[in-house]
Amino acid sequence: MKVGVNHLKKIAAIYDIHGNNFALQAVLREIREENADVVVVGGDVVWGPQPREVMETLMQDRAGFFYIMGNADREVVHRHSTEDGCPDFVAEMNAWCADQLTKNQVNFLKQLPESKRLSVEGLGNILFIHGSPRSDEEAIRVQTEESKIEEMIKDTREDIIVCGHTHIQFDRSVAGKRIVNAGSVGLQSKANGACWPLSDESFF
């Protein structure tokens, strides 16, 4: 994995792994074959069946990896419960996932930022967020009305926004900005197999 960030040509975006280490390892093999410069891990990493294994895989070699926090990561590491408004199943899953993680893994997740900005040669500046620029719980969907998206992105300076959260890939333009949903590595919706985009000059 290349680690310089001044002249990036290929950025792999892997979102919504959701504790699926088998899918993560398969995707990382594909990314190595594509020779990506860096990888952005777009949140919702551990809420799923293999939280510790996923973190072990990701933390084996962090060079060239950037991470942002997803709403599910926050709920796990802070052990959100029914008192925080979570349904019973979600609260139980939050507690179970937190119990599987090591102290170092929890501390790593707690300090993750909400966004990452990178520049790709031939594409320009890209904003990576989990949900929307306003909230990691706010979903931008393929069917979301343009007026609602315009309100979500009105303070965003970057021309390209990469998001996740909904687990459904799409690529659309709103208010002069390209919005790409990365899909999901580990908990796909309306897709066969793990989804992830590679941002390079042929991306659009």
Automatic annotation (TrEMBL):
Database matches in CDD domains: MPP_superfamily
Similarity comment text for this entry: Belongs to the metallophosphoesterase superfamily. YfcE family.
Keywords: Metal-binding
Protein name: Phosphoesterase
Record has Oxidoreductase as a keyword: no
GO cellular component: cytoplasm
E.C. no: 3.1.4.-
Gene3D superfamilies in UniProt: 3.60.21.10
Organism listed in the record: Alteribacter lacisalsi
Start and end residues of each Calcineurin-like phosphoesterase domain: 10-191
Source species, domain of life: Bacteria
PANTHER family the record matches: BLL5683 PROTEIN, METALLOPHOSPHOESTERASE
InterPro entries named among the record's database cross-references: Ap4A_hydrolase (IPR050126), Calcineurin-like_PHP_lpxH (IPR024654), Metallo-depent_PP-like (IPR029052), Pesterase_MJ0912 (IPR011152), Phosphodiesterase_MJ0936/Vps29 (IPR000979)
Pfam family, one: Metallophos_2
Cofactor(s) required for function per UniProt: a divalent metal cation
Gene Ontology MF annotations: metal ion binding; phosphatase activity
Organism classification: Bacteria, Bacillati, Bacillota, Bacilli, Bacillales
